[in-house]
Amino acid sequence: MDKIKKVKRGEKDYPELLNYIGNPPEALYYQGDITLASEPLIAVVGARKASSYGKWAAYHLSEKLSEYGIGVVSGMAYGIDAYAHKGAVDYGGRTIAVLGCGVDICYPPSNRALKEEILKTGLVLSEYESGVPPLPFRFPLRNRIISGLCIGTVVVEAGLNSGSLITADYAAEQGRNIYAVPGNINSVSSFGANKLIKDGAVPLIVFDDIIDELGINRSEKKFMAEIELGEDEKKIYDYIRINGEATTDEVCRNIGRKPSEINSIVTILEMKGLLQTALGKIFIAK
Amino acid sequence: MYSQVKSGSLYGLDSEQVMVEVDLSPGLPAFNLVGLPDISVRESKERIRAAMINSGFPFPSKRITINLAPAGTKKEGTHFDLPIALGVMAANGTVKKSVAASFAFLGELSLDGKLNRINGALPLAIGLRNYGIKKIILPSANAAEVAAIDDILLYPAESLGQIVSFLKGKEKIIPYAKQPEEDLRKFSENIDFSDVAGQETVKRAMQIAAAASHNLLLIGPPGAGKTMMAKRMSGILPEMSYEEKLEVTKIYSVAGQLTSDRPMITTRPFRAPHHTVSGPALVGGGASPRPGEVSLAHCGVLFLDELPEFSRYVLEMLRQPVEDETVSISRIRGTVSFPSRFLLLASMNPCPCGYYGDPTHECTCTQNQIRSYLSKVSGPLLDRVDMHVEILPVKYSELAGLGLDLNHSTEANKPKTSEELRKEVERARQIQLARYGGESICYNSQLTTGLIRKYCALNRETEKLLENAFHKLSLSARAHYKIIKLGRTIADLEGEEQIRLHHIAEAIQYRSLDKMYRGMVMVSPR
Fold this sequence. Notes:
- Chain A is α/β, with parallel strands linked by helices.
- Chain A folds into 2 domains: 5-213, 3-Layer(aba) Sandwich (Rossmann fold), CATH 3.40.50; 231-284, Winged helix-like DNA-binding domain superfamily/Winged helix DNA-binding domain (Arc Repressor Mutant, subunit A, Orthogonal Bundle).
- In chain A, 38% of the residues lie in helices and 17% in strands.
- Chain A has 10 helices and 12 strands.
- Chain A has helices spanning 52-67, 80-91, 112-121, 138-149, 164-173, 191-198, 208-213, 231-243, 248-255, 259-271; strands at residues 5-8, 27-32, 41-45, 71-74, 95-98, 123-126, 152-155, 177-180, 202-203, 245-247, 275-278, 281-284.
- In chain A, strand 4 (71-74), helix 2 (80-91) and strand 5 (95-98) form a beta-alpha-beta unit.
- Chain A is elongated, with a radius of gyration of 20 Å.
- The longest helix of chain B is centred in the C-terminal third of the chain and has 18 residues, at 418-435.
- In chain B, the strands form 6 sheets. Chain B has a 5-stranded parallel beta sheet.
- In chain B, 39% of the residues lie in helices and 16% in strands.
- Chain B is built from 24 helices and 18 strands.
- Chain B has 3 domains: 2-168, Ribosomal Protein S5, domain 2, CATH 3.30.230.10; 186-399, 3-Layer(aba) Sandwich (Rossmann fold), CATH 3.40.50; 447-526, Helicase, Ruva Protein, domain 3 (Orthogonal Bundle).
- Chain B is an alpha/beta fold.
- Chains A and B meet through helix 1, helix 2, helix 9, helix 10 and strand 11 of A and helix 9, helix 21, helix 23 and helix 24 of B.
């Protein structure tokens, strides 16, 4: 593993944008490539307890950002944070994890594998020295660094008390852009993000919105071709696409087929990478 | 003055003949019982004395010695009352020794001379039959239960007095004739699958489970209808055969769970022990081994509601019965085996509070709580569960049958009755029995890896799909074989010889826990 290095305020590699926040850290401890922290970055944050929708959104949003060479910053927690990092890593993009403890500590421990993947091309940093334990009060504090490093912060999914709303507050204080991914209004895990939109955050209707917002010229990309879908497959795929999510029973009733048939077609669509199932429901995968 | 009367003693589900020897000799009045009687047998002295006197027979004031031969095995049960009383009377000369010797006796006496119902009458009678005994006198309350075996003459009696008159030739007792079997489906008539609104997917999964006795786990929030559905499971299993009924009735007889209303178990059992159940209550045990819930569920359904709430130690004990289909309990006297071939049906919430993934309630659990909750059921027991299916609460429109989104109300979504589902299950079982005629197994769920190769050939296209699924859904090797087995069952339900692509594709949907864990261990969601 790389050695843990330190960069002080005023030194060349100290991230430029951090100088403009209210309470900049005096020094940063890091592993990986510190120059990444001075590139254009977007924070992708959200609740630890995420729905399948939230995980999906975080993953693919990061993928999209990586596609355009924008680094993804997040907190390496469970849920949205982890999927945000994962989306970037899987695409081959670069990502920064900002920790609320010493860089040598992996918290939560189950994200060890993820941390190693991040370090291959990215950066893990913290304002705390090695060995500082992850205590609850440190996480809100580190959120100011997450938003401070970035030109904008996207809240993917957040309940009413989610820590990611603190990140959004910091971003507002620091004068950075705030984006939110809208969710169903009947979903408790989307209240926070939707409320941000009400308060003035920019909603991301499609992922490309953020690219446009950043002023990047989007090259014409081919719409994901609907690869040779059979008639029934198309019916089911369309139904899910319109409704966002559905249970097998709902699909059965609306398409008028038996559960056995629906189940087998859903598997085929899962294999084709168009749908995914979780917690008894079917979702769009892409 | 010596006499000898036949009776039987029970150990586990097996019984052997016991000779009740009575000797009356002059001396100080005494009543000695030898031949390793336990407390319940030793207490019979008092009942016998009172019953004889109250029935108007003299109780000999002699030195009475009773031996239960073979004297080396322990005897228990109150059914020794009647043979001992008859032995005393035969030795006394109240009844003729030769007449008393031509019958076997089973029965408990009450103090006024009436005969009480006993436990284990059916296995006792079966054991006595194997010793060549053709005539048994027993309490009339037990007659209907024992009538299941037909090559034996049963003389049901109400009281000690009646038996003595009968043996003296003064009164006739008409041998019990088997009653035409009543349809005892009353219970299952009241609960039918057509009562369940919606949940067609879960019904389908339960039917597949029933078709080949696949163990099934239902996962869903409170109020989704897990228990309601589970209760209807035994109603879609095929009718029991005569041998099965006899075997199950034997177990219930030993456990003392037969009543005069239900002398014979004719419908498949449904057992739902509470999650506080102790190990011995679940798998059987005790100083003299008694069948536990797994054996009482033999040939039927064992339903474990709220699976993670059961203690881990108790769940571990389930492994052997599920695997071997029999429970062995070792005691100092030897080992007793009770059969335990059941369909394991379990249910659980997706998280401790129950609302993870529920669209209308907020889940209050932390990610770590959910993790540890799921890990409670992981491991060896889950390996023996073929199907896991998620179940969500039905919407009001479905409940009320308002058909708000029933634009396509066709035949396909009219709920099937338990009867219809059972017919299909029975057909699938016939196909399996015919196919496995030469093997030692009966259903697809019992297929071993070797037999899967023999009977579950997949075509190229299907192989490809499985391979694809293997990588995309990161399935384990175990899940791989379970999916093939499920595919075989789905094909059988549809009456198809060859396992086709859509059978396997459907089967993959019944492994939702594989995916749930996948979500937890963080693999990319594509």
